[in-house]
Amino acid sequence: MTAPAAPRVGDPERGTLDKAADENFPVAPFFLPRAWREDLMAVYGFARLVDDIGDGDLAPGGADARLLGVPATEADDRLLLLDAFEADLRRVFDSVPRHPLLRRLQPTVRRRSLTPEPFLGLIAANRQDQLVTRYETYDDLVAYCELSANPVGRLVLAVTGASTPERIRHSDAICTALQIVEHLQDVAEDLGRDRVYLPAADMERFHVREADLATATAGASVRALVAYEAERARGLLNEGAPLVGSVHGRLRLLLAGFVAGGRAAIHAIAAAEYDVLPGPPKPGKLQLLREVGVTLRGKG
């Protein structure tokens, strides 16, 4: 995952939302209508919190566990927290949720007629993270991204009233690409959590062992593997890029920002000569703006 902002003890809602600034792409930029920004931040708050539960990155002090009704003695049980979070999510649709981020989400769900499925997919992805820490093939990883990333794009389309089957298909390609890029940026961090999102079959093909991912800098084989996976992600971004041209106005600029964020991150990885082990290569603002322009012109 991206490096989280420091949480504010005692304010789990604010601490979670503050992490939006650390993402590869703009979550709810200023140029959007205020109602869209509020609804997108509500969706982001859900997605960020469920990831924090799955990664063990909740704010210290156990406030989130208490809000979800989990005893302090079991506040480190991620599966139990995810179960409690799912139960609270279901209250969004039929009663009153306990957690403030879910209470914030409830008006968005009602206003945009959102369904539980994409939210449940994100919870399922984080459950999977507790049980599956290695992926044998690229197809296995893509199937994981269908849970961990694609629901976010589908929610963005639903919030902005832009959902169509073709747009969803393009959005899924973009979101899968963004997830793969994030995994490439975070190889070392993920390994520290005993997770490897580089497909085992590809590691074998490039003669990369897990021990090679635990070094201070990447050797030639690791760099070649990262370059290969980055090119796959670039291909997915190109596959999904027609989504940008299918909409107009400020939504077009928002979606261009998502594609550009992925392309700029790949550029940063390439600029680091595919050595992602010292830390996540991050794109500069100028590179991001360049990629926005390229994407809006339908190039790339």
Shape, principal axes of CA atoms: globular
Distance between the termini: 26 Å
Q: Overall mean pLDDT score?
A: 93
Structural class: mainly alpha
- Number of β-strand runs: 0
Characterize the largest beta sheet: strand count, sense, and whether it forms a barrel: none
- Share of helix, binned: 55-70%
Number of helices: 15
List the helices and strands in order: HHHHHHHHHHHHHHH
Radius of gyration, CA atoms, in whole angstroms: 19 Å
Low-confidence stretches: 1-9
Layout of strands and helices, then pairs:
Layout: H1 12-17, H2 34-55, H3 63-67, H4 78-94, H5 100-112, H6 117-131, H7 138-148, H8 150-159, H9 165-185, H10 187-192, H11 200-205, H12 220-240, H13 242-245, H14 249-271, H15 285-296
Helix pairs in contact: 2-4, 2-5, 2-6, 2-8, 4-5, 4-6, 6-7, 6-8, 7-9, 8-9, 9-12, 9-14, 12-14, 14-15
Give the structure's gist in a few sentences.
Helix content is 64%, strand content 0%.
Give a description of the structure.
The chain is an all-alpha fold. The chain is 64% helix and 0% strand. The protein has 15 helices and no strands. The protein has helices at 12-17, 34-55, 63-67, 78-94, 100-112, 117-131, 138-148, 150-159, 165-185, 187-192, 200-205, 220-240, 242-245, 249-271, 285-296. The longest helix has 23 residues, at 249-271. It is globular and about 55 Å long. Residues 1-9 have low confidence and may be disordered.
